[in-house]
Design goal:
Elements lengths: L21 E5 L7 E4 L12 E5 L2 H23 L1
Antiparallel strand pairs: 1-2, 1-3
Length: 80
C-alpha cells in the first residue's frame, strides 16, 4: 500500500500512516463484504472485486452500515 497516495473512501481523510487502515472488499454480484488489514490487501488484487480503503473503525462502521442499507434495498426490489 502506497500510503502517500491513499485516502479513505468513506471520509476522504489522507493516509498519513499505514496503521489501523482497512480495506473493504466486495464483489458486486454477490452478497457480502469483507474487511481486511490494508497490508493483507496490498498484494495482487482480483479485478472482479471492488477494493475500498477505510481509515479506521469509525469509517469501517459507516461502510458496513451502508452495505446493510444496499442489501436491504436490493432485497426489497427483488421482493416487489
Amino acid at each position: 500500500m502506497d500510503i502517500a497516495t491513499k485516502s479513505c473512501d468513506v471520509c476522504g481523510r489522507q493516509n498519513l500512516a499505514a496503521n489501523d487502515w482497512l480495506v473493504a472488499i466486495v464483489r458486486p454480484e454477490y452478497e457480502g463484504i469483507l474487511f481486511v488489514p490494508a497490508e493483507a490487501a496490498a498484494s495482487s488484487r482480483n479485478p472482479d472485486f471492488i477494493y475500498e480503503d477505510i481509515c479506521g473503525q469509525e469509517c469501517g462502521h459507516k461502510r458496513l452500515s451502508r452495505w446493510f442499507d444496499e442489501l436491504a434495498t436490493t432485497q426489497e426490489s427483488e421482493a416487489a
